[in-house]
Amino acid sequence: MESYIFENARILDGSSDEGEQDHFVRVAGKLIEEVSDRPIKDSSAKHIDLRGKTLMPGLIDCHVHINSGGSPDPSVLSRLPSELIAYHSVNILKGILHRGFTTVRDVGGATFAQVQAIEQGIVEGPRVVGCGKGFVQTGGHVDARTRYDLDDGAYHLTQLGACARVVNGVDACRQAARDEIRKGARFLKVHAGGGAASMYFPRAYLAFSLDELRAFKEEADNARMYICVHTHSDEAVRRALDCQIWSIEHGTLISPETAAIARQRDATVTPTIIAYEAQIREAKALGLDPEAVERLKWVRARGPESLEIMQQAGVKIAYGSDVLGSMWDYQSEEFPILTEVLRPIDAIRTATINAARLVRLEGKVGTISTGAFADLLVLDVDPLKDISALCDQGRHMSAIMKNGVFVKNQLNA
Ligand SMILES: [Zn+2]
Is-above-0.90 flag for pTM? Predict the structure, then answer.
């Protein structure tokens, strides 16, 4: 394994507001072995001068679906052949990594075998922390059946493109939770409310009874893991918090009162505003009907307000994109949206320290410190001055490293 010393780097991981100037970072094997404000001597290591550049930890996207290639429509995705979905995921994973995201949390769809394929180097991609299939009640937001389908929905379980499985009743919820844990889930995902633009199961709907939610929660607790919940309405968020669930997806309509509770419970919310923005911009190409676009516009417009509410309450926010189908090129575009409200450094924290905590890899990812994985980005432009340094398909990243290996290296060293 190669070792490297990055010299004279300005390091920026969110642990301070401005970052640290003139630092030296030694990478050996997969890990960051040393971080110092003095030159590090090691004649066997390759020295790389980063004067004038910024060294960041690899980014973390806490809301992705790697098995979403082929269509943006869950009802189509869930019926596509699994091999096709798997081949699409190869391109999706590569794209993610080359945008500088070295860790992702897959919140529905990724299998243990896919995680292994990356770990074994068969497929180039980020570190994936997955939950297997999410859980949806009959007719819920990602029950992919249309009104014309007459089957029982059992196919969700075996189709790679289905991000969730259909489950109802306390006992069945427990069994399904145990089954996903058996198959390697690192956390559980529950669809606890309606979809942003859903016609069949609108965003105001609640999903799963409190007993079912508590059953999922107990199974997760027993396995020392946590639950994340899909929610848009304030009531859905509140219900989840009442069930002691602290990882909230979307949370679009969160009220100041609920945000205060979220803060008190130390919950983390992962908004995914770019998911709506991308669909609005691509509406024509996607063939979305005008009513759906109106619903998306409404949710998109509400995005900055919810960010403001959360920021004022001091709620932890994590980075999420939730882009599907052909919209992956928008993955990094949540950064500029976040900075409509947050300071650039706080937007960066959503994809570094806040995200690391959410994926339960604190100290290992999202940080430039001794003992962390050597997941690193070299930026030509200061992202505190211009957040788009993190956008444009990784164009402003002259180097991307994952586990101590360069994925991209345009440094002349
Ligand atoms: Zn999602």
Answer: yes
